[in-house]
Design a protein that fits this description.
single chain, alpha+beta, Jelly Rolls, Immunoglobulin-like, TIM Barrel, 3 domains, nine-stranded mixed beta sheet, six-stranded antiparallel beta sheet, 10 helices, 32 strands, disordered N terminus, signal, Galactose-bd-like_sf, EC 3.2.1.14
């Protein structure tokens, strides 16, 4: 029987008398009628509408396990992220509230902040099945908003949450998120950008733009331009409206195909290219290989290495391996003849600057100018097609006050960008420009950039990003070294380690999808075109840490170009125009019976 229809017996009369006596004494009690006016203020507490209403650093909805309904939250903390999901709720000042929910997993926290009194939280160290957490708080005399949140603990496993509720007096209609935007349309379409506009939404203070389901931009007005797109590529766009109470559902989808355009300087490369480094200035256990003897499968040959006379001189010299160290080294005349023969066959021969031992720090404009002059001399002397930047170690790092990859201020970064733009302008559109950074300098920028907001981080974190960004229209190929790398967090907010296809898939997906730098969704590193990206892998177990078998190489290519054999990592697209593979090195591949080359030839025909 419903409580409102129960007969009024002696206990009810006694309760009324007790309340009256307390009122006479100046003590206020919360009556049944007052409690009946309370409401559940948590929006989408059962996660039946995905993550609508919640702001999560990591998380998704799943259909199993659930406490009730058809969905629940699943979030996985990482090494520096506790996978928090939160929402801000409008409340009444000086009111009592009860926060509760059901959770599963290790170290799950439920709490409220900004209460105006004492912020509260409750947690469980281990819940193998659904466990109810509950806590109460009273808002301060001037408090009108409270943030409720869930999170796990750093580096532990995934947690689940469902049926989150905040019971108490309704704070008013100001707690409602705005409606979904309407009228989304394109205003301009180029080979690398799409302009969008939509109708204003009452109560909205900001709008978020989504590309293929991923948030790429937040604006205050009703228009935006999404950049960093690939030519002749289809994209889907949606927009949401938001205010302090939360975010709306997504608008209707608008599908746009960018126009064709060359940009970036593909410079006559085949649709799928094989890139390799040739040991030309030193000897090691792989043995010296004459340039004329490099098989025709290799489309880009990087001569390793040109090195500076000192770390900060900018003066680059290229010395071929002496006969005393490389007895079968060809003469300069034969070497130059081999370069011309390779070029006649459609191959590109580049000078690679840096390497493990060649630290290059262009700290001054004088060093910048010396770099341009000395590199130009090497290119002209040998008749080369372009330049590969293989800066490693401490060549690139960011000053503490350099926090925006789109507007760098650190001299070694600014001077390198200037030098490369000068070289590109000097030699024209056929000049081949490639880069071979380590993952620490690129994908690691998803988590960390430079020394960080509070200092203490390695200033080299993400230091290649401003260089790549500034030269994105001049860059022929980026082939990040997916080897000799520590674990790197992917766009799934999971750490990925070398040794299998998943590492290469996750690292390449980041380049082709783009990613917020240092977790800032308002500062997104835009994706590169697929024809600008090759995957860097060791040719053999002798060449470096991170070697994977031909089976794993094939699985990587299948996933990225066909979206098959993808394993545990879900990519954000399919890129049949992916340029190809890079390896360290041609010499080590020859040493191992041309395994890497043969697998590439078999895959791309």
């Amino acid at each position: 029987m419903d409580r409102a229809t129960r007969p009024r017996g002696p206990r009810h009369i006694l309760a009324l008398l007790t309340a009256a006596l307390l009122a006479v004494s100046g003590i206020t009690v919360l009556s049944s009628a007052a409690r009946a006016a309370d409401a559940d203020l948590a929006r989408n507490g059962g996660f039946e509408s995905g993550l609508t209403g919640w702001h999560c650093t990591a998380g998704t909805t799943v259909s199993s396990p659930v406490h009730s309904g058809s969905s629940a939250l699943q979030a996985t903390p990482a090494g520096s992220d506790d996978a928090q999901c939160a929402q801000t709720v409008t409340v009444q000042p000086g009111a009592q509230y009860t926060l509760s929910g059901y959770v599963r997993g290790s170290y799950v926290y439920l709490g409220a902040s900004g209460t105006g009194t004492t912020d509260v939280s409750t947690w469980t160290p281990s819940a193998s099945d659904w466990q109810r957490l509950s806590t109460t708080f009273r808002t301060g005399a001037a408090t009108t908003e409270v943030t409720i949140y869930l999170h796990g603990w750093y580096g532990t496993g995934a947690y689940h949450a469902d049926d989150i509720s905040l019971i108490g007096p309704d704070g008013g209609s100001a707690g409602q998120p705005p409606a979904a935007p309407t009228g989304l349309r394109t205003t301009s379409v180029t080979s690398s950008s799409v302009g969008l506009a939509w109708s204003a939404v009452a109560g909205a203070t900001r709008y978020a733009v989504y590309r293929d389901g991923t948030e790429v931009q937040t604006v205050s007005g009703t228009s935006a331009t999404v950049t960093g797109l690939a030519p002749s590529t289809a994209y889907g766009f949606q927009v949401t409206a938001a205010n302090d109470a939360g975010e709306s559902a997504k608008s209707a989808n608008v599908n746009v195909t960018t126009v064709s355009g060359s940009g970036g300087g593909s410079s006559g490369l085949p649709t799928h290219a094989l890139v390799g480094y040739l040991h030309t200035s030193f000897a090691n256990g792989s043995g010296y290989l004459r340039l004329a003897d490099v098989p025709d499968s290799w489309d880009v040959i990087d001569l390793a290495f040109g090195e500076p006379t000192s770390a900060t001189s900018g003066d680059i010299r290229f010395h071929r391996c002496p006969v005393s160290a490389c007895p079968n080294a060809e003469s300069d005349a034969d070497f130059k003849a081999a370069i011309k023969a390779k070029q006649a066959a459609g191959k590109k021969v580049l000078i690679s600057i840096g390497g493990q031992n060649g630290q290059v720090q262009l700290t001054t404009t004088a060093a910048r100018d010396a770099f341009v002059s000395s590199v130009s001399k090497i290119i002209d002397d040998y008749g080369l097609d372009g330049l590969d930047i293989d800066f490693e170690g401490h060549s690139l790092s960011l000053n503490a006050d350099d926090t925006d990859f789109k507007n760098p201020t650190t001299p070694v970064i600014v001077n390198l960008i200037s030098a490369l733009k000068t070289l590109k302008a000097t030699y024209g559109s056929t000049f081949v420009l490639t880069m071979a950074p380590e993952t620490f300098f690129v994908q690691n920028g998803y988590q960390y950039y430079g020394t960080g907001k509070w200092g203490g981080q390695d200033p080299r974190c993400g230091a290649y990003l401003p260089v790549i960004y500034a030269l994105r229209d001049d860059l022929t190929l980026l082939h990040v070294q997916d080897y000799n790398s520590g674990p790197i967090m992917g766009l799934d907010n999971q750490y990925h380690s070398m040794g299998g296809a998943d590492f290469h898939i996750a690292m390449t997906d980041m380049l082709l999808t783009g990613f917020p730098v240092a977790g800032d969704t308002h500062n997104v590193f835009p994706p590169l075109r697929p024809d600008q990206v090759a995957i860097g892998m060791p040719a053999s177990t002798y060449a470096g840490n991170g070697y994977v078998s031909p089976v794993e190489v094939t699985r990587t290519l299948d996933c990225l170009t066909k979206k098959t054999s993808c394993g545990s990592y879900a990519t954000h697209g399919t890129w049949p125009a992916l340029r190809g593979l890079m390896t360290w090195s041609v010499n080590w591949d020859r040493y191992s019976g041309w395994e890497f080359q043969k697998n590439f030839d078999a895959y791309f025909g």
